[in-house]
Specification:
alpha+beta; N-terminal domain of MutM-like DNA repair proteins; Helicase, Ruva Protein, domain 3; 5-stranded mixed β-sheet; DNA-binding
Length: about 260
DNA sequence: GCGAATGTTCGCTT
DNA sequence: CAAGCGAACATTCG
């Protein structure tokens, strides 16, 4: 489900409820989502840790412990995190429960179970390409020259360049469409055909659109808890994603749905 | 019943 | 050998 703006929203909403808490226990209801190490090692490693920070990098969330160890979470398509009282009922797709010393639990739910959770010692980052992540959308070095340097010789469609997490981290299928629409560039335009001005408009649209949707996703902890983290607020503001057959908000012509790189656009 | 779904990774073919 | 594809993962929803 989530791309960077949704992941950042989760981080902001849950952060105050996680900082300075101590983990008193871990339950793994479905070991499939634990990517590493073994479930036994995960429980042993995480129990007793003190939470020092809750960070985001691209679409990854990271719970940093005072010890230097950490948990990294990728929600993939349908993962979500909630904080609920330990007395609350668990749901069918609650796979991991991390008990906190304030009586609440951090719970990982995931209908399709495509998401992953890693526990690593001493900030190790030897998994899932996290070391190869590109710059953040708000990085000061994100500009036309950076993007050109990454893809000017590629015939890949510009849409695919935006989805490449090793170039700019955090953009997914929705926001790549929204960014290109804002920049006025066809998603199927090959990178090698992009003009200097195209690169300038993309470089400007990336932080602008991502920040716009972070702001639109803003939600209180209470409302987040009610919807169990499954409710995103971006949809009313989408210009083109999922709107095939509807009129273009810019020119009124009918938007055409097609497929690029296996993704619906 | 079929197709798609806000993501990533693997394996096969150019 | 890099790049580019489809399939796979697993479930729900329309």
């Amino acid at each position: 489900m989530p791309e960077l703006p949704e992941v950042e929203t989760v981080r902001r909403v849950l952060e105050p409820h996680l900082l300075k808490k101590t983990i008193t226990g871990v339950q793994i209801h479905n070991a499939q989502v634990i990517a590493a190490p073994t479930p036994e090692q995960f429980i042993e490693g995480v129990t007793g840790q003190h939470i020092a920070a809750f960070m985001r990098r691209g679409k990854f969330l990271r719970l940093l412990f005072e010890s230097g160890d950490n948990i990294t979470i990728h929600l993939r398509m349908t993962g979500c995190l909630t904080i609920e009282p330990q007395t609350g009922p668990t749901e069918k797709h609650t796979h991991v429960i991390i008990a906190l010393d304030d009586g609440n639990e951090l719970r990982y739910e995931d209908v399709r179970r495509l998401g992953k959770i890693w526990f690593t010692r001493n900030g190790a980052e030897d998994f899932s390409g996290i070391k190869e992540l590109g710059i953040e959308p708000f990085d000061g070095t994100l500009n036309a020259a950076y993007l050109r340097g990454k893809c000017q010789n590629s015939k890949k469609p510009v849409k695919s360049m935006l989805l490449d997490q090793s170039i700019v981290a955090g953009i997914g299928n929705i926001y790549s469409d929204e960014i290109l629409f804002a920049a006025g560039i066809r998603p199927d335009k090959p990178c090698s055909a992009l003009t200097a001005d195209d690169y300038e408009r993309i470089a400007a649209a990336i932080p602008e659109r991502i920040n716009f949707f972070i702001e639109k996703n803003e939600i209180s902890f209470e409302e987040y808890a009610l919807s169990k983290g499954k409710d995103y607020r971006n949809t009313p503001y989408l210009q083109v994603y999922g709107k095939g057959g509807e009129p273009c908000p810019a020119c009124g012509n009918t938007l055409q749905r097609t497929v690029i790189g296996g993704r619906s656009i």
